[in-house]
Structures are given as C-alpha cells and as structure tokens.
Amino acid sequence: TSNEMWGGRFASGPDAIMEEINASIDYDKRLYEEDIAGSKAHAAMLADRGILSAGDRDAIIGGLETIRVEIAEGRFAFSRQREDIHMNIEARLAELIGPAAGRLHTARSRNDQVALDFRLHVKSALEGFEAGLTAFIEALLDKAEAHADTVMPGFTHLQVAQPVTYGHHALAYVEMAGRDLSRCRDALSRMDECPLGAAALAGTGFPIDRHQTAEALGFREPTRNSLDTVSDRDFALEFLSFAAICATHLSRLAEEIVIWSTPQFGFVKLSDAFSTGSSIMPQKKNPDAAELVRAKPGRINGALISLLTVMKGLPLSYSKDMQEDKEQVFDAIDSLNLALAAATGMVRDMTIVTDRMKAAAGHGFSTATDLADWLVREAGLPFREAHHVTGRAVARAEEKGVGLADLTLDEMKALHPAITDGVYSVLTVEASVASRTSFGGTAPDNVRASAKAWREKLAKT
Ligand code: ARG
C-alpha cells in the first residue's frame, strides 16, 4: 500500500530497505514533547489568524494532549511505517479526531517542524547544563574554600614543579567550568530564534504570525530567512562544540583523580559511592566513575565530527542527510549529563589527604625557584646566575640525599658567599605558596578572594 501522507502521487509502497533506512522513529520519538508543544502553538496561531476554525483548533489541541499522555505513559504504538515522530503523531491524531487532523499541517512542513523540535530539545538540554555546571562549580568552590591553605605539589610534565595550594588547583577547574558556562549561554542566546513558519523552505502564502508562535514557544524572535532556517543545524553543532570542550575539561579532572587516588600518590580518597571493587582482588577500590568520565570525550568528540561531516557540502536547503543529526546529539546530551553529574559527585565526596599532599609538595626540590628568587632579591644576583647557583645547590642536596633546606649554611656559603641564614625562611613549602601573591597566583589569600568572587558572580546570574 502507498503512504498515508503522500500516497496520492504513489502507486506502490516502499521497499523494506527503503523503510528501514528512512525510518527515524526509533530515536526521534525522544522529541515527542517538543513536537506536540510546537503543534499546539501552531494550531492556536492558525485559529487566531482565521486559518483554522475554533472547533478544529480545540479538537486538534485536545487530541494532541491525549497523544502526549499516551506516549508519556508508554501506551502509544510507534510505527516504522509512519517513519518519524511527526507522522506518527499526526496519523494518531487522525485516528482520534478524524479529518480535522489534516488541517494541522497547513502552512507548515516537516522541515520547519523538525528544525523546531530539535532546537527546542537542544535548548532545554543546554538549560539543564547551565544548572549542572553551576552545581559542579559550587562543589569545586566548597573544596577550594576548605583547602585554601592545603599545600600540594604543582606539576609541569607531571614532574614536581613548584608548591601550589589544592584550593588553587580546584579553582583552575572552576575557571574552565566558568568558561563552559559562558559558552553554554552564548550558544543558548544565538539559538533563541524560532524556526516554525519557514515551512518547507520558502515560507508560506497563509497569513501566519510567526512572532506569536515564537513567543508561545519561549523564543526571543522568529528566524529571519526561511531557506537558512530549514538548512541550519548550527545550534546542534554549537551544542556539540560546547559539549566536547566541557567533556575535555571533565576528563582532565578525571585523569587527575585516577592518578591521585593510587596508593603511590594517595592525594585523594574516593568515596565508596563513586568507586567499585574487584571480583577477584578483595583489597581493590577502583575509580571506575573517573575512568568513564575520562572516556566520554570519545563519544562526544565523535558526535561533533560526525555532524560536521554530515553538514559539510550540503546544498541548501533541507536534505534527508540532516536526519542523521539527532542520534549522536542525543547520545552526547546523555553522555555529558552523566559525566557532569559523576564529576560533581566525585568532587563533592572525595577526601583530600592533606598530609600526603604536603609531604609530596616538598619533594623534588620544589622550592628551588624560591632559592633563586631569594638570591636575586637579597644578594642582587642576575636571575640567570641565581638559577645556576641554585642548580648547584640542588645537585649538592641530591648527592647528599637531602632536601634543599637540609644543606648547612656552610654548604650554602660554599655555593655563593652572599647567602645568609635568611635563606631558610623561603625554602619551606608554606613560605613558597604564601609568597605567590601576584594576581592569579597560588597564595592562600588569593584563593580565598577568588573563591569569594566566584560565589558573588554565581549569585548574580
Ligand atoms: N524525520 C525527518 C528528519 O529528521 C523530518 C523531516 C523530513 N522532511 C522531509 N522533507 N523529508 O529530518
């Protein structure tokens, strides 16, 4: 049998493979709420503009509400013959209310309909991420404030570099998440234009009111060009770009948690709630959640590259290629949601092992730069010479198997005669971090001020 939507032009129905490659209902049923909201707004507008009778409008809106409940309660029979969510709902509407259902699609096409549904879905996902990122930032701020004075090693090349505070480290992730939040909001603001009414590609001759439907559906304004509207998936690409960057940040944090929770580091203890055991080794506590957060960019980056590749080179306006936009965006939404929730939970629950951090902070001659800076400040040496003298001090300490602060004053003086007793005060890890008061530096007072500024910023938005 030929198609119930466009059978007029067709003598026979589709090949089984045609049906299989064409059907998107298995995944786009996820858009049912958006599809029904869009149809209700469209029907209301058509009636206000005298294009649809009030009776038909009421029948349509009532029928759509029945369908919404059927789907929400799992009582709706989705059909692959009916291809996608739009036609599944419209066909069911016809079963429920008869011929009036056929008037709903006046001045509309599936092309603007799907652009609307998908955009609404991405928009609400991003609104969810605004809230999720805020919670993540708050969990990090709690840790930063509690550990403004907790000294740990800062690394470059994963080699001990200079002491920092754990509070400063946590705030580094606050900065990243803060940029993610701002990217999320930028994207939301750009996608705040309603596609409905672009119709197939050229607009419509019916006297519709696109401003009315835009407002009813929570958009700032309607889109301006009908051709662009049905061709545009920038909003999905921007979401995926945001998601890829955000997931990258989360995966870096996750990697640090994996490393830091090893017995060798022992900087953090994960809660039982975010760890798993081993079926054979009774002693094991594995950071599986952190590992999965670390892995999520695999899927999310894949989704971004996939959609960029689908869209590149597509002629205007709509092509069926664009149906391949949804599955991976849905997967990216779910993946990022889980990664963000798991990262927030892990940060909130994990114990910072301050003595392990502090002990490690002193390893690896981490205050060597402080010694060199002292020679510049107190003995007037050029930094390059101070660097050289300090290098010899490190070599001497390494030879003796001790830290820099354990060299005797005589040994120090042998390296440079201008060195006095005063040098020892800069060689502790606490003195080192306290001295880093430059704007954005790791000094505990900086950490407290920066955390406070973030709290105020979050309270304002
Ligand atoms: N299921 C389709 C999609 O996701 C809806 C739009 C179909 N439009 C069309 N002209 N065939 O893209």
From TrEMBL:
GO terms for molecular function: argininosuccinate lyase activity. One of its GO terms (cellular component) is cytosol. It catalyses: 2-(N(omega)-L-arginino)succinate = fumarate + L-arginine. It is an enzyme of class 4 (lyase). It comes from the Bacteria. GO terms for biological process: L-arginine biosynthetic process via ornithine. InterPro entries: Arg_succ_lyase_C, Argininosuccinate_lyase, Fumarase/histidase_N, Fumarate_lyase_CS, Fumarate_lyase_fam, Fumarate_lyase_N, L-Aspartase-like. Keywords: Amino-acid biosynthesis, Arginine biosynthesis, Cytoplasm, Lyase. Pfam families: ASL_C2, Lyase_1. Gene3D superfamilies: Fumarase/aspartase (C-terminal domain), Fumarase/aspartase (Central domain), Fumarase/aspartase (N-terminal domain). Residues 8-302 form the Fumarate lyase N-terminal domain. Its EC number is 4.3.2.1. It is found in: Cytoplasm. Pathway: Amino-acid biosynthesis; L-arginine biosynthesis; L-arginine from L-ornithine and carbamoyl phosphate: step 3/3. Residues 365-434 form the Argininosuccinate lyase C-terminal domain. PANTHER family: ARGININOSUCCINATE LYASE (PTHR43814:SF1). Belongs to the lyase 1 family. Argininosuccinate lyase subfamily. This is Argininosuccinate lyase. It comes from Fulvimarina endophytica. The gene is argH.
